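Module 6 notes. Inverse folding takes a fixed backbone as the condition and produces residue identities as the prediction. Think of it as a translation problem where the source language is geometry and the target language is the twenty amino acids. Below is one complete input and output pair. Work through it position by position during the lab.
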């Protein structure tokens, strides 16, 4: 029977997503990833190199999924509140995603996984926002890149800083909810129009 390399890689990536989301790149263990995937841990080294390269591959894969699921076209950029709501919905459905990004930030040392691709992706979002600013549908008081960053940060904070929701907005603090989403969408619309 032939070895199914693609399936093996996917099993390892799926297990690595869970491990890295739970423990971060420092606390994650290759042995636990292999055990969770039901694959010999040597395959991780064969396919991904080392743990750091596996973490970079996981980030790249998960970022591609998020980018495909939550696009920001020039037409959609006219309502950054709606974009924030869609990003919120993605995080709600994929709670590991914000944790992976938070771990990446905590371990940031000047290098970013898939930097060229991510920069190109964010440049497209910035261009869409710039277009909406030039058409007058969004405020041009702030740099387009700063607006995109603010929307991403505000959205992710509901998932990475739940204690602030508890302390500052107790009515909306009971986990991902319609109230949190509504608050976020309203805030972003207020800030950007």
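Target side of the pair, the amino acids:
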């Amino acid at each position: 029977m032939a070895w199914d390399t693609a399936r093996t890689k996917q099993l390892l990536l799926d297990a690595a997503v869970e491990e890295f989301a739970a423990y971060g790149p420092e606390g994650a263990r290759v042995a636990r990833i292999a055990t969770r995937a039901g694959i010999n841990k040597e395959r991780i080294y064969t396919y991904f190199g080392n743990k750091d390269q596996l973490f970079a591959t996981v980030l790249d894969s998960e970022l591609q999924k998020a980018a495909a699921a939550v696009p920001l076209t020039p037409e959609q950029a006219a309502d950054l509140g709606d974009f924030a709501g869609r990003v919120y919905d993605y995080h709600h459905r994929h709670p590991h995603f914000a944790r992976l990004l938070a771990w990446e930030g905590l371990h940031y040392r000047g290098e970013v996984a898939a930097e060229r691709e991510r920069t190109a992706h964010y440049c497209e979002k910035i261009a869409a926002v710039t277009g909406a600013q030039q058409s007058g549908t969004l405020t041009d008081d702030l740099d387009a890149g700063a607006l995109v960053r603010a929307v991403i940060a505000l959205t992710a904070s509901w998932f990475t800083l739940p204690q602030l929701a508890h302390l500052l907005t107790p009515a909306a603090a009971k986990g991902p909810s319609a109230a949190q989403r509504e608050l976020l969408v309203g805030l972003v619309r207020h800030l950007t129009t």
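Reference fact for the lab report: The chain has ten helices and no strands.
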